[in-house]
Amino acid sequence: MTERLRAAFQSHPSPPFSASKFVPGYEDRNTNNEAPTTGEVSRRSSQSSRETKRSDASSSSEDGSPLAQVNLRVGSMTVSRWLTFGHVLFSDVRHELVPVEGSLKRHSILVIDGLDNDDWSFYAAETYPAATFFNLSPRFPLPEELKSSSSSFPLGPLNHHQIQYVSHLNKFPFAPQSFTAVVYRFPVARPEAYYRSILTEARRVLKPGGFIELSILDVDLNNMGNRGRCTVRRLKERINEKTPDTSLGSTADLIVRLLGKVGFTTIKAARVGVPVASSVTRSDSKADEGNDAAEKKKDAPSLSEMMSDNSPLVDEGITKMVSRVGRWWYTRCYENAAENPSGKSIWSDKSLLSESRELGTSLKLMVCCARAPLQRITST
Length: 380
What we know:
Blueprint: H1 2-8, H2 23-33, H3 39-47, H4 49-56, H5 66-83, H6 93-96, E1 107-113, H7 119-127, E2 131-137, H8 144-148, E3 160-164, E4 179-185, H9 192-205, E5 206-222, H10 226-242, H11 251-261, E6 265-275, H12 282-297, H13 303-307, H14 312-333, H15 350-359, E7 362-371
Parallel strand pairs: 1-2, 1-4, 2-3, 4-5
Antiparallel strand pairs: 5-7, 6-7
Helix pairs in contact: 1-14, 2-5, 4-14, 5-14, 9-11
């Protein structure tokens, strides 16, 4: 597994872990989600259909099948864990969540996910059953009648709760000092005031000494070529046309500065490059091009199947999945924040992907953690 990670990422390979323990269950859960059978599923689909269609375009055309989309979402969780060194929660808070026999203490974790789904919080709740997870989402939570019915809709674990939150101008719907940790994943392109509000509220609801964890993607890329620079520049212009005060510099640098300004301490960060396009050797390029049509006709293997296969071809498949996941993250964070008259993703440009592959272009990802001050704060 370590060798696969070295091939996939430009730095910080993660230690091995047992993907087989969680991948199959998530494939089952998300496969069920592809076939709505309840009113809640329909509501979720209608409320996020525009974003989903645009996000799906972040992968190439062969990724449009339900199975491919399930693999992409499962792959997102897998890659997230790889990037945080084999841990779901990577700050020291994870040590406090280990179940202690006879202890009645129960920690609460708040999740704010820019990917706009509950996949990661659901998985985290299953990973840490001794803690309670609250996922902030603009969507309505599942109605009680569906929770108690015999519906085939896959329910989350009992320690997982979805809480509706529709505007950053409002306070989080929790009392001060309610949480042991806050997880802020993939902040989408927004003005500085938006990030400041989220971080201020995060500090308010954290207990003294509580942790905040962040995974932040920047709009600019590493090792961009001419086509990449032009593409990113046009994307920034479209974002600015839609929301003129949106911050278009380094989101990671901005949020780290804001963490200090709102009172967080012990800020630690690590940066990694996620490849935009999987690399192939020149000798293999023509063969790959010749086999593209045949490969598209085949059913894509599930991620769990790839993880259990040690062949070089599967290693290449995992590397491709890493790139697809990274592009999907980027679309969620930045493309969805821009006006898009053509309806096409920037990743549908084969010339851009070819250039990125040749130059080793990568997405700029930062994982970061910090702590709330130990002294108590007064609610305002």
